[in-house]
């Protein structure tokens, strides 16, 4: 394009200047790219430097402050390349091409057809731009004020505008005038910020080469886009490349069109997803059928992949390089192929060194004939049989590092080549045969399909080629065999010469050569006492001799080297100072001269201890060859070393025959002088007795062996030392006393008649030699008796014992006694018993090591632990009888110098606490193979120290029983010393030993809880290890009772379940006994003396102070015995209870009293004093007696011991205020509180009584008085446990607890008036939590889910999640549950003042494993205040029922069926009072507990018995109440919803009515005047008619209406989510409680009360009016009387009373009379109202004649199945016959229903009254009664019948018995007796009277 030139960044301008050009090659390596970049940077730097030097800086070219145009190397405007208009990115020409690292790392991934980047195909090249002279004028839509001058910052993130190479004037966006929309600083076009929207990639992504997996992706950048594609498409590796659907690779986000389809690749090239489809279509359309088959088109054929070779690889191929196969010298495996330059041998050797992993540089090459290859061109070509590919392979060559050629590798290679050629030859011959078959028209024998398709001329050509190939292979095979034969000869030479064959190039020097110097020492070093882990040690003798010739210094240097060596510096048995001080040889001889050491000698190093023999020596039988020579009439038997060739095919004893004396055959004649001299020389060294026992081979009489007994070190099987026979050291001990050789059973040990004298120690003893003899039955010289002291006695010499003389085979210092031939050796003799040290030579032991009976040593009766440590056995017991526990005959090694079988009593008496080993098993375990040996603790040193302390205190040595000199076996029970108390704890040594042994059992047996009880195999419990013997079988339990392992698994499981349940109930029982301690006060134990312990006890009351009954006076004999015992006691104990000063005074007064005359002693004695004290007359000095006699202790009332006074900070005794409460020393966390003498300076006696109930010590405010809880040992004697009590519990000083609950034992109340200090003065809740923590009860059973402040722990419990991952969950648990979880999970104590509820109570809800304080009752009990007793009673009854249950599944089901405790809240009202009074809030988990609380809180006169809900439902179970609460909640919710809906409907109706009122008024006028009445009348008629017509269908209509309403309510309820039950139960449930009365609805109560109020108001109105009228009448009468009006006299016409007085004050007025009438009417009306309102009183008719209650007619009987044994009888209960039958069916497990009951007489029981209590009855399922034994007889008859048919055939039982009729006596022998028949009715013949049962049976 004119006016445009290549920019610096364009690729065309770079190709001419760079050394690298992409056009020169089609492959680019990583190194080339790096070099290209480096040269490019170098060129730029060079050009810039030249410009700076050559072109001077212009004074006008300065950088202006308002622009960046100065000092810029920009091109002119006319030469710039216009950028992309409107884009925020720099032009493509200004961008530097980047190298993608993923393509650099793997150039094979490059796709030549795909453009690499924008630099290779620039946007400027693809898009034609406008010239600079014709820029595009763009109209500015926005004013300058509306633009942002920061848009340049957001246009390009890579670099700023100043980095552009195009100046402002050359930009395509520029115009010829000043644009106000451009920045004044940069000249860039300013674009508004809101227009700068980021480009978003939106496309549909597919996997490369597939259209199946796709996803729609929207991302802001390529990086995020690739990451999202990797995740959404599920790629195996990260997405790296993006292709469009046309295969073009995308490198920038702008190249991806919106909503397009792209293909994501992990690095591989683009794969067309439609390629296979297109190929299949092309094949389908272009395929053609031909005679030779289907012809595929060129498009459908698979093209071969062409390898693109790089330029570098092409140069390598064109060079003179070939492939050569190499091996290591002497090997034919692991070949390596090396590409080598044939002219560069050194480079080839270096490659061989690296590829083959040689230790040194490769030096020599050999071909397969052993010729050295000096030039690689001479390397042979690999045989054509193993050639691969077109390129030739040379070799093989064998590479050597300098050693000679080894033909071994060549032989293996040639053999491999031979097998390959043979295989090829076989195939060629087969192919040739197939071709011949085809030419011979035998095509049915041809199996190769290619041959069948060949024409005839081609077959002939193929045949020639096949024949040629067969000839070539045959010739090659022949050449290979020749070469193999030559190489095999060289291999044989190599095998014969060994390593010297390959080391011929190394010159060999002798050790004595001057260049080598003095020969060093190579020693095999062992640790003293060990023959394992030998280490090779090299000692530079020449270096040790430098500067000295002293042997001692050289030996010291050897010791130093051995000490610094890593072998001896870290010995197997660690030493305090591992410094070598001595070395020994194998015989225990100390080496003091270094020159005595030999090369490869074995030495044993010692760190100062004496030599410990590392070998175990045993008695063995050795066999050597025996040869007989005859010389001058005399026979010489010579022994020679055994040649193993003589024993071939004669390994078993059956190949040999034992003979007494040398077997007779032709002896070798020694006639020549040379042979005679040779025989004489042999005879002087190896002549043996001809009368000895020999072995002769049965198949070769000339082979004779001489057996001899000797002592040699025990040889391991499979070790380096070989013996013949292999079991020559194993002996068989039989019960008849023979000790036979296991390998040759014909031989045994016997005593010969050769008597010798030998030296044992310092003495010389005489005895008979023991040798190997042929076994003879009844020979007493060959029979041995094993003694209990580990000695062996011959029956022929009962006073002599078997003795070992101490010689070892091969020892040069062996001393042989005189009197035997020189070829014979003596190792065993029988001599008299020896004492002391020599006695060890007469003790033997048996070491058994058979794999099929391991552990036989455990049956020995040895009391010496050394026997058990070394696993030794002995055939007899302590009493001398054979130990039948062994597997007889016994086999093993016979070891001399055995330790004593039983330790003497003197050694046992030193400590008496030797560690005891017992075989322990889990309680109830059956398999004795699982027994685990557990060794008790070694308390010997502790017991020694205690004995020393005891002896030191008394000033005497501990006396032991008299010792017996002989090693007499002592029973273990006799060795037990007196048990000694420990000073630190309140237990004895035996108890400590027992506890430590149980601790070991806990860990070794992997018990779930701590081991607590120990039982022997008989079930007896042991509380110490005293009565147990070694290896006794014991069973360990965690507290449960003994479980007999002989029981079945179900029975054991039943016992376990019942035991666990009983333990839980025992815990509950203990908790109940501790939960409410009342009336406990502080008390002094004993008397008012110092150091008295302070305890708590029940508060004293007057009833306890009852006078004790006076004992009768003792008889004279009793008093005499009492006096004697007192005198003895005083004599022994007086001085022990007195101080030294008092003892001195007493003795001086006694001496002075002895000097007095008798009358002086009795001068002050009165005559009647002796009558007061019956013992006074026994003493002459009454004064001394009165002074020192024991003073009677006055009895003090408990009331005195319980009263204290708090004054001046002291808590003093009220009776003696000098005695106060105090602590002797505050050591540890628990300190006992004692009664001590008051000391003002002792702060430990000062106390502070706080208002919160704590009594703190002034010494430490954190220490308070605390009641020591009673010892909780419920399972020490029985599983039921015993109730605990606080009586007698000590008061201690402990750290105060900061929790609100759980510290009731630290709360007190001091009563100043009475002086009592009350304990446990706190709320009941605190007492219950405290008792629960001590009784091991989970506090959830008390507080439930209420969070309280109590002591607890935070446990980390693993939880299994849904993804099978184990996560750790932190839960809070109480103290009791933490004890059970201790050792399983990590526990951390919670901080104080933490409120929580134990999580173990909700373990199922939290999906946790149930590990709590209870075994089986976790979360199933409620032990709150009112529920605890009921819970205990319920579970005790359940336990009693389950004990009678035999099925373990039923027991487990019953326990698991117990529901989790649910505590509910109720609002209780009295029945009949409605809601007139406020209800009582009550919490409970059972109906019984709630009723008890209701009785107490509601103040009922009698016990509450019934609970009713609001609708009158009687509640019998707690679950019924919960269900009712849920249903009531749902009903209320539905009612509320209906109200809401009806409220909306009513509002809608009101709106409609308002709209109707706004209508025109003429609508009402249009209606008929009587329309409303007519409509109402019509409705009334219709209703009447409907009621009359559907009178019978009302029930059905009501039911339908009810179901419709119910459906509507259910539909409403389904639209609302019901909350969980726990939320519903948060609110109390209203209930009404009665004492037995029926439910009275609260609505009626309220109505009744309203009526009562109305009636009361009515009565009150009438009464008020009556009172008002009466009041007016009283006022009127008062005014009348007060006026005192005399009245008026008026005349009358009456003659009798002519004058009357009117209006007198005594005369009532007319108004008064009217008032009187009104009041009378009101009174009458009020009386009528009261009569009407008066409630009717119901009378109750009580029948006083009826019984108060009906006695239940329940009877207990014993029943058993009909026809079975009475032993199966079980107890059943019932009130009717049907109930007894039902219970009998269940208890007896009958397969059918029991229907009939018989008594023992066989009579059917038809009425219940016929059954007596505890009567034995028989139940039947319908059959007639049969006696118990008849069933067994029937079974036996059936069995005999079956046996007869099986033994004699089916016809054996086809018998017909015919009974002949006696004419005189008509009696059927098979029928019932005649007296049992019914009497005859008439005088018929006896034949007619014969019953049917008396007829002869047919069979």
Structural summary, described in words:
- It contains 43 helices and 65 strands.
- The chain is α+β, with helices and mostly antiparallel strands.
- Strands 16, 17, 18, 19, 20, 21 and 22 form a seven-stranded mixed β-sheet that branches.
- Strand 49 (1308-1310) and strand 50 form a beta hairpin.
- Helix 22 (1049-1074) runs parallel beside helix 33 and helix 40 packs antiparallel against helix 41 (1710-1733).
Pick out its properties:
extended, 65 strands, seven-stranded mixed sheet, five-stranded mixed sheet, 17% strand, 43 helices, alpha+beta
Indicate the topology.
Layout: H1 11-15, H2 30-54, H3 101-105, H4 123-126, H5 151-155, E1 201-207, E2 214-219, H6 222-232, E3 241-244, E4 249-250, E5 260-265, H7 275-286, E6 288-290, E7 293-295, H8 311-318, E8 321-328, E9 336-341, H9 345-356, E10 364-366, E11 393-400, H10 407-439, H11 449-452, H12 456-497, E12 521-527, E13 535-539, H13 541-544, H14 551-564, H15 566-569, E14 582-584, E15 601-606, E16 617-631, E17 634-640, E18 656-660, E19 668-669, H16 673-686, E20 687-688, E21 693-697, E22 704-713, E23 730-733, E24 739-741, E25 747-760, E26 763-774, E27 784-786, E28 792-794, E29 801-804, E30 828-831, E31 844-847, H17 865-869, E32 890-896, H18 905-911, E33 917-922, E34 932-935, H19 940-954, H20 972-975, H21 989-1004, E35 1013-1016, E36 1021-1022, E37 1033-1037, H22 1049-1074, E38 1080-1084, E39 1092-1098, H23 1116-1133, H24 1140-1154, H25 1158-1161, H26 1169-1172, H27 1182-1188, H28 1198-1201, E40 1204-1207, E41 1210-1213, E42 1219-1222, E43 1231-1232, E44 1234-1237, E45 1247-1249, E46 1255-1257, E47 1263-1267, E48 1291-1295, E49 1308-1310, E50 1317-1319, H29 1324-1334, H30 1340-1343, ...
Parallel strand pairs: 1-5, 8-11, 12-15, 16-19, 33-37, 56-59, 62-65
Antiparallel strand pairs: 1-2, 3-4, 3-5, 6-7, 8-9, 10-11, 12-13, 14-15, 16-17, 16-22, 17-20, 18-21, 21-22, 23-24, 23-32, 25-26, 26-30, 27-28, 29-30, 31-32, 33-34, 35-36, 35-37, 38-39, 39-44, 40-41, 42-44, 43-48, 45-46, 47-48, 49-50, 51-55, 52-53, 52-54, 56-57, 58-59, 60-61, 62-63, 64-65
